[in-house]
Amino acid sequence: MAGCISNPVLHRLILLTEGLYRLTTVHGFDHPFTDQQNFGNYVDLVLMNKINSGGWVAINCIPTAVHTIAGALVGKLLLNGSRKIQMMIIWGIVCLAAGYGLDAAGVTPIIKRIATSAFTLASLGWCLLGLATCYWWIDMQNHRRYLKFFTIVGMNSIFIYLFFEIVGDRWFNGYISAISTGLLAIIHIPLTARLIAGSLCIFTLEWLMCYFLYRKKIFFKV
After folding, report:
1. Any idea of the CA torsion for 107, 110, 112, 114, to the nearest 10 degrees?
2. One-letter-per-residue 3-state SS of 128-151
3. How do residues 45-54 score in pLDDT, each as one tens digit?
4. Pseudo-torsion of CA 8, 72, 115, 2, nearest 10°?
């Protein structure tokens, strides 16, 4: 694990993100962490001829690559490493301290939609601690009962992620939500309850897709 969060590639990605936002001086896009006025917004304008609403930017793929690479390195640790739990906990605490420390000190705020370095570190810290907890509880303590519900999704995590982001976001989620909330509106269910019910319908149907693939032993892998 010493080669995980201390991996120089991860450091460079975080520093690159900081540099791009802080050191570029494009007029109108020189406010590092202000929505619609930062370097990420400028890149979107160049690439797509528009600035995405809500603050999302395409180049957040650079800092979030830290999560992907760190996940692969942690996977390698789980397969071949020693002191697995201890190292995940140590690095989880280090990442949390660094991420929240940058935010509290006013150096770099925690902003998910542009994946600032503070957000990248803080979220990675929580992921490491969560994984350490699950590994200890499930694999080391052998508490495996009642986990099939989650296993069914986990066995096709790549499929359901891509489905949700591509098909779900562009068509499926809105279509199912419109039907479910529309039907409940007929019987005068409050809006908040209708929205919750719509989300539960989407979740249930997408879980059933994973269950179908699980029963057919179809697993998407990279």
Report:
1. -10
2. HHHHHHHHHHHHHCCCCCCCHHHH
3. 999 999 988 8
4. -40
